[in-house]
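Field notebook, page 211. I keep forgetting to write these up properly, so this time I am using the form the group agreed on. The chain and the ligand, iron/sulfur cluster, are recorded exactly as supplied. Prediction of the bound pose follows.
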Amino acid sequence: MTCALKNLKGCIPDQEKRRFHALGLHRPIALLASVLPTHLTLVDALCGDLDFEEGGTPVRLDRLLLGGDPVLVDSYGASLMGFAPAQIEHLRLAASLGVGSMDLAALDLREIGRPPAGMGSAPSSLARLAARVEARAACSACYGGLLHAMRRLEEEAALDRAPGPLHVGQGFQGVSGDGYGIGTCARGFLRHLDGCPPSAACILEFLRKHA
Ligand code: SF4
């Protein structure tokens, strides 16, 4: 996962960056964070990628994250991608070194502003995931979180068992049906997950439960 801690590699020379990879990345990333205190982190999560920092499967989230604790910022970022913070080795190591906290339950989260509805979309490279989704005026945060969760399920070789179709978006407000709804707007469906937006980690749990 490339977010606050891993991006500290930008503060070291190229030769050291190569050495980081030879040393297995996670431990050097955590150790660097322990000697290079970060006081404020701004994360560009406008359009990340499902799998790879250099792109290929872009997913809009239309978010900027700002926080003081880089481990907590990364932990929240992990949840937006469908990961539990403890799954990311350098987060576990950094937390054990006292760099910050992975405790999302203690997160004091404040949301400022929202992108308009209908921004959620999937690139053609993700058509196999989008085929399972029925979106109506979906926010990018909701649709993007759903794509991340489905990708994590695909990595577990469980996507074929995922329920569907999955309804998401403001266009489903007040609509009821015998299907699956993702997000508070689609709460009229028999099986639904509340949240506005629900995190990818929560969506993944919901999909696993109904797979
Ligand atoms: S639940 Fe929230 S984030 Fe999701 S589509 Fe509705 S308003 Fe947007």
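OBSERVATIONS:
- The helical segments are 14-22, 26-35, 70-80, 89-96, 127-130, 140-155, 200-210.
- DSSP finds seven helices and six strands in the chain.
FOLLOW-UP: compare against the apo run.
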